[in-house]
Write a structure and sequence with these properties.
This protein is of the alpha/beta class. The chain has five helices and eight strands, in the order ββββαβαβαβαβα.
Length: 155
């Protein structure tokens, strides 16, 4: 198993099956929709250390456009966004034939029962309250949503 980094910055694994046939596991693409740019950049760094390619958007309508062009493997979505809010983005994602099965993890400081219920109704994979979660926890839950191996926590 060999780690590689392509010219476009995407990292992945090259594996040999023993007969000279080699295949690559490309990095998973994550659309991170977060209007706090500092938090977005910190979280993107954590995710990229776990072999993910992260695309950041800071407003809802642009996030929807990016999702439709990039077709991400996972969407991390804040609710309180400029313009179109996260629930509106999520409803549009679920209505799109190419995106409807994309896992979506809500990352928000909103923690009311009605917010959880709305997210559940729209089919989120997970709901993370930012104020009670560490960046490592968000990154780990993102890997779980992508069905990727989760590295062991350092003690």
């Amino acid at each position: 198993v060999v780690l590689f980094q392509a010219e476009d910055g995407i990292r992945g694994l090259v594996r040999s099956r023993g007969r000279g046939d080699v295949y690559k596991r490309q990095a998973k693409k994550i659309l991170l929709v977060e209007d706090d740019e500092t938090l977005a950049n910190l979280l993107a760094t954590h995710l990229e250390h776990n072999n993910a390619k992260v695309v950041i958007e800071t407003e809802g309508s642009r996030a929807l456009e990016t999702a439709m062009t990039e077709i991400p493997d996972l969407i991390l979505l804040d609710i309180l966004l400029p313009g179109m809010d996260g629930f509106q983005v999520l409803a549009q994602v679920r209505a799109d034939s190419f995106l409807k099965n994309t896992p979506v993890v809500i990352i928000s400081n909103l923690d009311s029962a009605s917010d959880f219920a709305e997210a559940e109704k729209l089919g989120v994979s997970d709901y993370i309250v930012k104020s009670t979660s560490l960046l490592d926890d968000i990154a780990r839950k993102s890997l779980v949503a992508l069905n990727l191996p989760v590295p062991e926590k350092e003690s």
